[in-house]
Amino acid sequence: MTKPVCVITGVGPGTGSALVRRFVSGGYRVAMLARNAGRLDALANELPDAHAFACDVSDRAQVDAAIAAIETQLGAPDVLIHNAVGGAFGSFLEIDPEVLNRNFQVNTMGLLYLARRVAPGMAARGKGAVIVTGNTSALRGRPNFAGFAPTKAAQRILAEAMARELGPKGVHVAYVVIDAVIDSPRQRERFPGRPDDFYIKPAAIADECFHLAHQDRSAWSFLVEVRPFGETW
Fold it and tell me: 5-226 adopts what CATH topology?
């Protein structure tokens, strides 16, 4: 049988790479999307079923071209994971309005561009999954998050609108709120001296996304929150 196809955006050294590894190990051919072509090529050389497609998801033309190439080379996507993220910190008085707009283009418009390309085919086949990785900024606004939280909240609402429309057509849409600091060398530098269990493991996030993509349709989740066992919430 032909292996199913998973499209993953925002493939970097943390969650994105972990998602690629999990879905490849789960029997998928994975189309990796990111702006950094060199990083994608290195992972593609390591994993035979991982395929690189350089793409800025905030650019509708690039998304259209990437999905067309994926369909030609790999086949129609069965799973889409929108993991690409644009973020910035600062109060609403300090941020450059263009920064907020740029983040909105990546986080929210990128999801729209991608879903408009892949969801109709999923609905026509009566199956498929669209998963979005988010965080607590999608649920509340805080000081110094004015350039980020509004875009993630909009992303979550867009995903919910999609879930309500696509669910009855057999397509599962889920939003994962990551309430944690993701383990990476950069975050280890930001939080020196923290114990290992302070962080959430990228591989654990990937496991949860894989589980969501394969939930029985009699018990689909939409809003899923993940956090380390010691996290205060």
Answer: Rossmann fold (3.40.50)
